[in-house]
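Weekly modeling sync, notes
Attendees: S.R. (lead), two postdocs, one rotation student

Agenda item 3: backlog of single-chain predictions. S.R. asked that every request posted to the team notebook include the full sequence so nobody has to chase files. The rotation student volunteered to paste the first one in as an example of the format we agreed on. Action items at the bottom.

Example entry:
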Amino acid sequence: MGKAILAAAVLSFSGFAFAATADKVPTVQGLAMYDEPALPDDFTHFSYVNPDAPKGGELNRATIGSFDSTNPFIVKGTPASGLAQIYDTLMVNNPDEPFTMYGLLAEGVRLDPDRRWMEFDLHPEATFHDGEPVTAEDVVFSFRLLRDEGQPFYAAYYADVTSAQRLDDDTVRFDFSPNNSRELPLILGQLPILPEHFWQDRDFATPTLNPLLGSGPYRIAQVDPGRRIVYERVEDYWGEDLPVNRGRHNINRLIFDYYRDQTVALEAFKAGNLDMRIESSARNWATAYDFPALKQGFVEKLQIPDGQPAGMQAYVMNLRRDKFKDVRVREALNLAFDFPWLNDNIFYGAYERTHSYFENSEMAAQGMPSAGELALLEPHRDQLPKRVFEEPLPVEHPDDIRPRLREALGLLREAGYEVQNGQLINRESKQPFTLEILLYDSQFERIAQPLLRNLERIGIKGKIRIVDVNQYLNRLRSFDFDMIIGSFPQSANPGNEQREFWTSDFADQPQSRNLIGLKNPVIDDLVEKLIRAETRQQLDTAAQALDRVLRWGFYVIPQFHLAATRIALWDKYGYPDPHPEYNIDLDAWWVDPERAKTINQRQHGGRQR
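Predicted structure, as returned to the notebook:
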């Protein structure tokens, strides 16, 4: 049977076979990971927004590095910042709830009680920026395009979707495999919808700098390759008055200017060339903002609590390199990291040490394994280190650096190394142990140098290599590094993204987020257990078991975290008070017209923006 005929037959059969079942499933506007959405179907706006926020003004932010593409969905190229603003998704997350989504392009959603399928009803008035309607065909096209030609994580996200079908112009259906992730319906709600008529004669997989077409609240207004990208608010945006958008997308122009490094960007902010800065440096936060505009009240500093797990920022070892394959070597490298010294001497005491991959959450493993964890771990006892079952977390290591380095050297000797003339040598190969930390931002150099100094004390010769962002990304795509500073962000409801972080299928896929190169069947199994958890308790237990196995593998050297976001801004913006509990929503900020008159005068010397 020809493909077109077969597809038509499947569509016809599916539409007939499931119509009665779909009729019995209620149509709703919101979906929650667990329990029920907090907002009723007739809500008028998110509770934290100002529904009467004024429209106008602009927001200029810095991005470090460069860009050569306006397509954020593909492996090739370095995409510009802010591109998500031009696209609508089927649903949108409420940052005041752990993981609940409400209809955006979708005016209604039906989810099978057995979670084997779901349907979306599209707003018939939804249009792309060129006036063409957003249809079910565009949804199916976007799903297949991203799954087949997009970045690897899309295939991981949609692995349990068995089919995507257009039922009519405004209705699309997705069928799921048995035992799929509880998160899957919400992940599909995050699907960005691309216009089929725009892409049908274009090469999706090749980077471009053209302004691409979307249906979202902003469009690309200006592209200065590698230097600046500007977005303008769409005046006749089809979804402006939807409950999920009321009080949001208030600023007329969003500008991203590119700088060589954070030092230059900080000076640009202080000079008034940037409106806002998210500060990642504890030293800068403590010392670099003592300038006249702050003292005079023109600049404000905010520290906004973060309700999400801290995740893992760490030195990431590349297991594709033989030198890191021995767990004793990896533990020894962990012992050389002296967080107390860093926090006291560089970070002004601002940070806490990170231990868990799910830090700052109930999903972090603590103490000895619980009964629930043991039920997941026992089938793999022969494949796991005894310490997983016999020793508590966090790992007990000395606090002071000298006993830490003595212990590290002992582990390295057990692993077949010895120090000769001040250099660590492999007894068998006679090769020295060398290490390169690959960076793209010079501000990380001062954090990495103390680690290298400690490693030198046990004979390991290390160096730092700083490259530009494009070269850095190219080397990551091909996994051409010894060690990097990487991060594995986590939400309150981890799910399908864990496959790409940790599982064997993604270890060798270019541009995957399995930076470590993990190929471990136990970890693969625990990830699937987490993804398929049916209750909050099951999810927490599976995450704890996964966390425990990852931590006893010493695959990374955990760094530190701050359970807040630091923002400095010229004081002409209004924002939610209080902020949403789980994520900052910059889309809900606005320019205060009266304050902007005064601030612009001080910031730009009277020049209008």
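Discussion: group reviewed the output briefly. Residues 1-20 have pLDDT under 50 and may be disordered.
Action items: rotation student to repeat for the remaining queue; S.R. to check formatting next week.
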